[in-house]
C-alpha cells in the first residue's frame, strides 16, 4: 500500500492531509474547552449547534463553492482555502461570545466544504491507475482514523504544559504547512472547466450523480453508514457512562475500538477490491452495519460493547471507503470536482438527518429502541442500494445517438453512426442512462 507514496506529488498531498487533520483534531478539543469557558454548563448545547452549523455548511455550500471555483487554478484554490482556514483558526482564541463561535465555525466549514471535494477530485488525476487510487483511498481512511486516535492524546499531552487557547496555534500551523506542501507541487492540468451559467454549473454534479445508477446506490449506502455511524458517535458516551456507569477512559476505549475496526478494514480493502467487485463489498459492509445495530439493542455490558464497536468499525469502513472509486469512474475528469462536491453534500445530508435522530430517540425512547430504529433505517437503505445499483454492471454500455449527425466527431471516433459502446458516463452527449442497462 505504501508504494504509492513514492509518487512525489501524491506523497506531499497526503502529508498535507495528515497534518491538516491533526490540526483540526487539536481544534476539536480546544473548541470544546472554549465553549465550556464561555458557556459553562450550556457548552453541550453550544457544541451541538456548532455541529449542526457544520453540517448545514457542508450540505449547502459544497456545490455552490465548486461552481464558483470552476475556472480557478486548482493549486491556487487549495492554497487560498488553507490560508482562509488558518485565518479563521487564528481568530478563535480571541472570541468572547457564543455567537462569535457560531460565526467563525460557519466560515471555517464553508472553507472546508470548498477545500475537501476539490482536494479529493485531484487524487484520481495524480493516480490514474485504479489499484493505486484504491490504495490512496485506504490511506485516506487510515489518516482519518489515526487522527481520531492521535489528536486527543496529543492534545492531552500539550494541555499539561500549555493552556487550551494555544492548541489553536497547532491548528493554524497545520493549515499553513498544508498550504506550503501544496505550493511545492505541480498538479496535473485537466480539460478546461465547463462554461455554462452559474445555475448549470451549480447543479451539474447533482444531475450527473442522480442520473447514474451506481451513484444512486452509493447514496443509499451513505444513509446506512450515517445511521450506524451516528449511533456510535452520538450515543457511545451515553451507553458507557449512563447505562454502564463507567468513566471517560472507557468512553475513549470504545471509540478506539471503533477506530481500530475501521483501520483494519482499510488495510484489507485494497487486496479485497482486487478480487471482489465494489458493489458486493459495499453492500456487504452496509448489511453488516444493520446486523451490528440489531445486536446493539441487546448488549449488556462493556465487555460486549468493545467487540461490537470493533465489528461496526470494520463494517463502516468497508461500506464507505470504496466510494471514491465509483465517483472516479462515473464522471469525466473535467466533471470530477462537481461530482465529488455532490457526494460531499449528499453524504453529509444523510448525517444531518441521522445525528439528531440518534440523539433525540436515545433521549426519549431509550437506547434499545434507538438501536432498532437505526437498524431499520440502515436496512431500508441497503434494500434501496440493491435495487438502485444493478448487479453485474459493465463499464462499456451499448447505446445509440439518433439525434446526432452521422458526421459528428463522437460517432466518427467510435466508427459508426448507429449502436456503439464505450465507457458510459453522464455528460452533455449522454444526459440519461440507457434503458437497456
From TrEMBL:
It is found in: Cell membrane. GO terms for molecular function: transmembrane transporter activity. It is a multi-pass membrane protein. InterPro entries: MFS (IPR011701), MFS_dom (IPR020846), MFS_trans_sf (IPR036259). Coiled coil: none annotated. The keyword Transmembrane applies. The chain crosses the membrane at residues 12-36, 42-65, 148-168, 174-194, 215-240, 252-273, 280-299, 339-358, 370-389. Residues 9-393 form the Major facilitator superfamily (MFS) profile domain. PROSITE patterns: MFS (PS50850). Gene3D superfamilies: MFS general substrate transporter like domains (1.20.1250.20). Its main location: membrane. Pfam families: MFS_1 (PF07690). Keywords: Cell membrane, Membrane, Transmembrane, Transmembrane helix. GO terms for cellular component: plasma membrane. The keyword Transport does not apply. This is Major facilitator superfamily protein. It comes from Nitratireductor pacificus pht-3B.
Amino acid at each position: 500500500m505504501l508504494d504509492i507514496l513514492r509518487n512525489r506529488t501524491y506523497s506531499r498531498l497526503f502529508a498535507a492531509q495528515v497534518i491538516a487533520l491533526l490540526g483540526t483534531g487539536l481544534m476539536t478539543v480546544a473548541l470544546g474547552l472554549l465553549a465550556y469557558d464561555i458557556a459553562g454548563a450550556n457548552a453541550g448545547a453550544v457544541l451541538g449547534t456548532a455541529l449542526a452549523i457544520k453540517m448545514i455548511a457542508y450540505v449547502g455550500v459544497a456545490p455552490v463553492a465548486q461552481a464558483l471555483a470552476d475556472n480557478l487554478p486548482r493549486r491556487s484554490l487549495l492554497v487560498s482555502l488553507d490560508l482562509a482556514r488558518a485565518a479563521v483558526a487564528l481568530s478563535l482564541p480571541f472570541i468572547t461570545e457564543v455567537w462569535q463561535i457560531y460565526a467563525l465555525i460557519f466560515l471555517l466549514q464553508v472553507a472546508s466544504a470548498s477545500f475537501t471535494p476539490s482536494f479529493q477530485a485531484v487524487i484520481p488525476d495524480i493516480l490514474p491507475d485504479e489499484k493505486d487510487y484504491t490504495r490512496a483511498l485506504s490511506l485516506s481512511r487510515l489518516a482519518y482514523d489515526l487522527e481520531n486516535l492521535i489528536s486527543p492524546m496529543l492534545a492531552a499531552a500539550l494541555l499539561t504544559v500549555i493552556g487550551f487557547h494555544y492548541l489553536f496555534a497547532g491548528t493554524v500551523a497545520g493549515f499553513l504547512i498544508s498550504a506550503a506542501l501544496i505550493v511545492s507541487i505541480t498538479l496535473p492540468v485537466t480539460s478546461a472547466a465547463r462554461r455554462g451559467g452559474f445555475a448549470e454549473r451549480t447543479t451539474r454534479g447533482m444531475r450527473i450523480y442522480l442520473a447514474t445508477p451506481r451513484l444512486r446506490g452509493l447514496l443509499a449506502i451513505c444513509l446506512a453508514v450515517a445511521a450506524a455511524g451516528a449511533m456510535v458517535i452520538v450515543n457511545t458516551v451515553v451507553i458507557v457512562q449512563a447505562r454502564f456507569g463507567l468513566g471517560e477512559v472507557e468512553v475513549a476505549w470504545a471509540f478506539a475500538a471503533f477506530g481500530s475496526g475501521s483501520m483494519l478494514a482499510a488495510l484489507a480493502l485494497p487486496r479485497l477490491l482486487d478480487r471482489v467487485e465494489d458493489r458486493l463489498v459495499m453492500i456487504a459492509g452496509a448489511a453488516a452495519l444493520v446486523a451490528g445495530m440489531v445486536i446493539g439493542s441487546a448488549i449488556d455490558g462493556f465487555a460486549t460493547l468493545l467487540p461490537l464497536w470493533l465489528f461496526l468499525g470494520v463494517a463502516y469502513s468497508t461500506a464507505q471507503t470504496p466510494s471514491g472509486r465509483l465517483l472516479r469512474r462515473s464522471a469525466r475528469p473535467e466533471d470530477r470536482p462537481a461530482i465529488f462536491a455532490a457526494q460531499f453534500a449528499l453524504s453529509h445530508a444523510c448525517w444531518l438527518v441521522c445525528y439528531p435522530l440518534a440523539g433525540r430517540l436515545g433521549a426519549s425512547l431509550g437506547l434499545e429502541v434507538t438501536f432498532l430504529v437505526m437498524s431499520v433505517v440502515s436496512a431500508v437503505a441497503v434494500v434501496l442500494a440493491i435495487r438502485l445499483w444493478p448487479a453485474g454492471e459493465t463499464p462499456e454500455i451499448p447505446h445509440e445517438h439518433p439525434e446526432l449527425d452521422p458526421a459528428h466527431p463522437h460517432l466518427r471516433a467510435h466508427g459508426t453512426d448507429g449502436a456503439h459502446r464505450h465507457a458510459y458516463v453522464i455528460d452533455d452527449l449522454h444526459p440519461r442512462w440507457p434503458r437497456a442497462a
